[in-house]
Specification:
Layout: H1 2-39, E1 43-51, E2 54-60, E3 65-72, E4 75-83, H2 93-105, E5 108-116, E6 121-128, E7 133-139, E8 147-150
Antiparallel strand pairs: 1-2, 1-5, 2-3, 3-4, 5-6, 6-7, 7-8
């Protein structure tokens, strides 16, 4: 009986620690997206997360300016702007948040990169609770994964 209780306790503890860890990437992604929105980004092209305190975000602030900002914690540490004529495209903040939540539902606990290509495929790269690579692919506008690849 004691062994059963200990086993249940250990399983519960492992589940709680995985859930606590699963909330961290979502919180950091949310913080980064919110800062980028406040900066003026309306369409996101690519987001890269180096660790729990650094992010590089590329996207559009208006019809002419494509920007890359580097976040360190909750501060914008660098900015690069490029005038372009192809106009804004990419993911809205709401779409991006939906892809993140769908990737977490698939077992992702750590997010490394979110990007969209010119064919409208969104890729969310990260790791699962066991530290294995996981990539979740979506079609623009649909948070149902098109495919999930696990290494």
């Amino acid at each position: 009986m004691k062994a059963q209780i200990a086993g249940v306790g250990l399983t519960g503890l492992m589940t709680l620690s995985a859930l606590a860890y699963a909330g961290a990437p979502d919180n950091y992604v949310e913080q980064s997206v919110t800062l980028a929105e406040e900066y003026g980004i309306t369409h996101f092209y690519e987001l890269e997360f180096d660790d729990g305190n650094r992010a590089d975000i590329e996207g559009w602030v208006d019809d002419e300016w494509f920007v890359e900002i580097g976040l360190r914690g909750d501060q914008i540490a660098q900015e690069e702007r490029e005038r372009r004529i192809d106009g804004p495209w990419g993911m809205t903040a709401g779409e991006l948040r939906g892809y993140v939540q769908a990737a977490i539902t698939e077992g992702m606990v750590s997010i490394e990169e979110i990007a969209i290509n010119n064919q409208g495929i969104v890729e969310v790269e990260g790791e699962d609770a066991n530290g294995r690579d996981i990539d979740v692919y979506f079609r623009t506008g649909d948070t149902e994964p098109e495919s999930v690849q696990r290494d």
